Amino acid sequence: MTESTINALVSPEGSLEILSNFEVNRLKDKSEGGLYRLFRQCALAVLNTGVETDDGKTLMEAHADFDVRLIPQPRGLKLELVNAPAHAFVDGQMLRAIREHLFSVLRDIIYSYSIPESAEGLRRDDPEGITNLIFHILRNARVLQAGRHPDLVVCWGGHSINEREYQYSKEVGHQLGLRGLSICTGCGPGAMKGPMKGATIGHAKQRVKNGRYIGLTEPGIIGAEAPNPIVNELVIMPDIEKRLEAFVRTGHGVIVFPGGVGTAEEILYLLGILLHPDNADLPFPVVFTGQQENAEYFEMIDQFIRNALGDEAASKYEIIIDDPDKVAHTMKQGMKDVETFRRAMQDAYYFNWMLKIDPVFQMPFEPTHKSMRSLELHRDQPVHLIAANLRKAFSGIVAGNVKESGIRHVQAKGPFEISGDPELLAPLEAMLKEFVAQDRMKLPGSGAYEPSYRIISEATPAMP
Questions:
Q1: What confidence tens digit (pLDDT) does each residue in 136-164 have?
Q2: Which range (91-100, 265-274, 299-308, 437-446) has the least confidence?
């Protein structure tokens, strides 16, 4: 059955109304250096809000006849959508949330790619410049709110979770909302949607009218994790590394629900940063939580972390099982500690400038067969570098699972090969197998999972 489509002319919703001729031409440009393909890809993902898919390549192929065109107007611009998914409309009118998200995509792509890579203070090869760039993108999106007290809880977890896990994440969000806390997630389904949905109920009960449901994504992942409709502040960062830094710079604490390789990537990124000596005294509450049935899952994660990074890394988080009230109470107390520290250090509430992030966590990693095979996965290096390289390994698997470019790499040359110290790789392989067994690699119903990776040990010959 062919999905119904619609043609429409759409006006901006609050985010962006005026573009220069240069910006318009770049968005129309279908060449390698143009932005048309990137904008079309992200726009299609937004229009598929509510559709359960986690395969960016399949999404693009299913809507090969979709097109988006900029129509300049005397007072700004409109978007002409050709063969857009009909479920994004009601009675011929685009849903307001989707319209907001569509123009957020336009705003962020235009802004990110309008800043020259060599711009003073915003260079992409300079650690301080990268942080400044992230700040500028977030400020341009009006995410940074001066004067607002710390209240933003980042929630990480899988897009492919079962109904019980979803309901638990929703109840945690409810308890956070009852305490006036706001939510920031990767903006997609599953454990990213549950806390937001629960928080809306908690906020309604407490008559919180300025509750925030921030979604942070990036072009490579948005097709697999389309923004859920509860997101009221959507930001598209240039790449996964800047997305991760945006999470920890703007958020005041992190809750981790059960997930797959994407969640493992986020955990390794966060712990690698918190292990830096300069961050030793910096309050940053981190809670791993799930239902009683998830206790073994978090034991596995905890053991993997202790084996790879040591007991100090494990001291950076607390595991709370089947107790949403305690999770929310822990976060609420953590917000007070963050506020006290930031006030004493005269650091901004809205952006964590003091957090030290090693450049190895900032520079973009492009997963290819060569770069994945070259990862230094051994113990003869500082612990934060172990975390950084494991993070890259997980990032490559995510790309091979759901990102259009990664899927094409794997289809063309076979699974990414991951090699290194057996003491690191054996627990890694065991954990990945458990993710597969628990259906955490792909959405249920999307067919049998075909691994995008291959673990190489001394006894396993590499593919020619």
A1: 999 999 999 998 999 999 999 998 889 99
A2: 437-446
Q: In CATH terms, is domain 150-458 a member of 3.40.50.450?
A: yes
Contact 395, 240 (CB under 8 A): yes
pTM (2 d.p.): 0.91
What would the pLDDT profile of 232-270 be if each residue is shown by its tens digit?
999 999 999 999 999 999 999 999 999 999 999 999 999
Give the class (CATH, top level) of 5-110.
alpha beta
- Angle at the Cα of 400 from the Cα atoms of 133 and 225, rounded to 5 degrees: 60
Q: What is the mean pLDDT of the chain?
A: 89
- Contact yes or no for 244/272 (Cβ under 8 A): no
Residue 143 CB coordination number (10 Å):
20
Every domain of the chain with CATH number 3.40.50.450 lies at 150-458
The alpha carbons of the chain give a radius of gyration, in whole angstroms, of: 21
| Torsional sign, CA 223, 224, 228, 231 | negative
381 pLDDT above the threshold of 70: yes
Q: Which sign, positive or negative, has the C-alpha torsion 342, 346, 347, 349? A: positive
- For residues 289-313, b (16+ Cβ closer than 10 Å) or e, as one string? bbbeebeebbeebeebbeebbeeeb
Question: Using N-to-C axis directions, what is the helix angle for 261-274 and 383-402, rounded to 10°?
Answer: 160
Answer yes or no: are the C-beta atoms of 406 and 399 closer than 8 Å.
yes
Q: Which residues contact 26 (CB under 8 A, 6 or more apart)?
A: 34, 35, 110, 113
The segment(s) of the chain belonging to CATH 3.30.1850.10 are: 5-110
Q: Which of 169, 179, 118, 112 is nearest to 329 (CA)?
A: 179
Per the listing, tokens 């308890």 go with 175
Gap between the Cα atoms of 317 and 330, Å rounded: 11
Token duo for residue 351: 């952006």
State how far the Cα of 84 lies from the Cα of 6, in Å rounded to an integer: 5
Q: Is the pLDDT of residue 1 over 70?
A: no
Q: Using alpha carbons, select from 194, 186, 323, 327 the residue that is nearest to residue 265.
A: 186
Q: What is the pLDDT of residues 70-102, one digit of tens each?
A: 887 766 678 899 998 888 899 888 998 899 898
**Non-local CB neighbours of 33 within 8 Å, separated by 6+ positions:** none
